Amino acid sequence: MLVARKIRKSFYSDGVENRVLKDVSLSIGDGDFVCVLGRSGSGKSTLLNVMSTLLRPDGGSISFNGRDITRFGERDLGTLRRRDFAIIFQHHHLMPYLTAVENVLVPFMGSIKRVTREQTRRALSSLEKVGLGGKENRLPGQLSGGEQQRVSIARALVKSPSVIFADEPTGNLDRKTGDGIVDLLKSLNDEGLTVIMVTHETSYKARATKVVEMTDGVMRESSGGRATL
Question: Domain 30-57+71-221: which CATH class?
């Protein structure tokens, strides 16, 4: 479904190159739950950003359903992100002046057209799926941290993506609340959604179908994982 081959990515500061990804290869199947582990600075979030097309790689290729998306122009990448990819960040990025359902509807607000009744129905259904039925009219400030993250997951789900990329989705939550978020992602995966989650919490690899570890920009197979190197 999603295949990265020999991905390279560097950043530069004062003319000095920092090689963050060093010929990283990874194969992800339809319906996988991939857990990417690594310490801060290991390159795991950069890998997620490259595979989700938020960053372009310096070298290598990424294919999605047989198409090399590293060759896509911005218009095609925009279509891919709207239709097939969804991203959950460590910070939920909710708009504080919008209710929960309005925040979930944000992906439909990219044009001057009014939000339709069907889109609103889908937003309410997404909130129900993440356990927030009945709280659709609450503002973010009236929700707990875990509930706010669930709103961001509902927002990712509302357009029925093929893949969810989750970048440290439990990073700002206490352990119990974080466990609930990962359990939610696992339940969505059990329904057929492909999930790629970056985390530093090694305990979460038990939920995954595939586990890989990043160390200094290099991918290594983890025990119990089925990484393609």
Answer: alpha beta
